[in-house]
Specification:
There is one protein chain. By secondary structure, the protein is α+β, with helices and mostly antiparallel strands. It folds into 2 domains: 57-137, no CATH class; 152-250, 60s Ribosomal Protein L30, Chain: A (2-Layer Sandwich), CATH 3.30.1330. It is 39% helix and 18% strand. It has 7 helices and 9 strands. It has helices spanning 2-30, 46-52, 81-88, 112-126, 167-180, 198-218, 240-243; strands spanning 58-61, 66-69, 95-98, 102-108, 131-137, 152-155, 186-190, 226-228, 245-250. The strands form 2 sheets. The chain has a 5-stranded mixed sheet with strand order 2-1-3-4-5, with helices on one face. The protein has a 4-stranded mixed sheet with strand order 6-9-7-8. The longest helix has 29 residues, at 2-30. The protein is elongated, with a radius of gyration of 47 Å.
Length: 251
């Protein structure tokens, strides 16, 4: 009887030992074994490494928030956080970001003079040892489309086609426009007053228009860019002095 119990005990011992051996082998093969330390050294994990390593300081600031990352123990100007936020509130879209030694200011301002002033203000606020990169944008002024000069009018003496003395001054804006806008052309129309025969008056109106054209070509305007356009009614409007005229328009 005793021999039977001993046999069973040995069998159970071997079974338990076999199970433990198989379990240990499985843990070794699957990498699920216990972490071991040597010589009393503490176990080190990846999170532990991150907590030990020093993360560089960086920040992003606007008028409403101030976000900081990393080690800020040596950043003396952080005591001015509220003052910086108040200063940033002066701009509609200003943002400040960087690290302990250099900051970049972005956003928009109305002029280059204002941009320079903001650099000086920020330097004074942060103090020495901090480089300020001013990346504020100054919007380009709205493009103004050039406007052609008004119709130039030359007034002539009775029965004459000679250009008036002030012709050069009167035509100066028209000539400048034609020179700077080669796609434009001049339209010349001559008029006369009510005195005299219709036939002679029309010839006189044409001669006045021709004299005006000669003035433009003498100023360097190509004849191909000048059109002599007879008006539907050659008798000019207004009083007699106003009626004796030539009109030079831009198209």
């Amino acid at each position: 009887m005793m021999h039977t119990h001993q046999t069973r005990y040995l069998q159970m011992t071997w079974i338990v030992a076999l199970i433990l051996a198989l379990l240990l082998l499985w843990m070794l093969l699957t990498g699920r074994g216990p972490n071991h330390t040597c010589c009393g050294e503490p176990e080190t994990t990846s999170s532990g490494l991150n907590s030990i390593a020093e993360i560089p300081f960086s920040f992003v600031a606007t008028s409403s928030q101030f976000s900081v990352e990393g080690n800020d123990k040596d950043v003396s100007w952080l005591s001015k956080t509220e003052a910086l936020k108040a200063w940033l509130a002066r701009g509609l879209d200003w943002q400040l970001k960087g690290d302990a030694k250099q900051v970049t200011l972005t956003g928009t301002v109305e002029s280059e003079a204002t941009k320079q002033a903001k650099t000086e203000e920020l330097n004074a606020l942060l103090g020495e040892g901090v480089a300020v990169v001013n990346a504020l944008m100054v919007p380009s002024p709205a493009l103004v489309m050039p406007v052609a000069p008004e119709v130039a009018k030359l007034y002539f003496d009775t029965g004459k086609s000679n250009l008036p003395e002030q012709a050069s001054t009167t035509l100066e804006p028209t000539i400048e426009w034609l020179i700077s806008h080669p796609e434009s052309k001049a339209i010349i129309s001559g008029f006369h007053d009510a005195r005299g025969s219709q036939e002679n008056n029309q010839k006189l109106a044409k001669a006045r228009a021709q004299a005006s054209m000669d003035e433009l070509t003498a100023a360097g305007i190509e004849a191909s860019r000048i059109e002599m356009r007879k008006p539907i009614e050659t008798e000019g409007s207004g009083n007699e002095e106003e009626a004796r005229r030539v009109e030079i328009a831009i198209e």
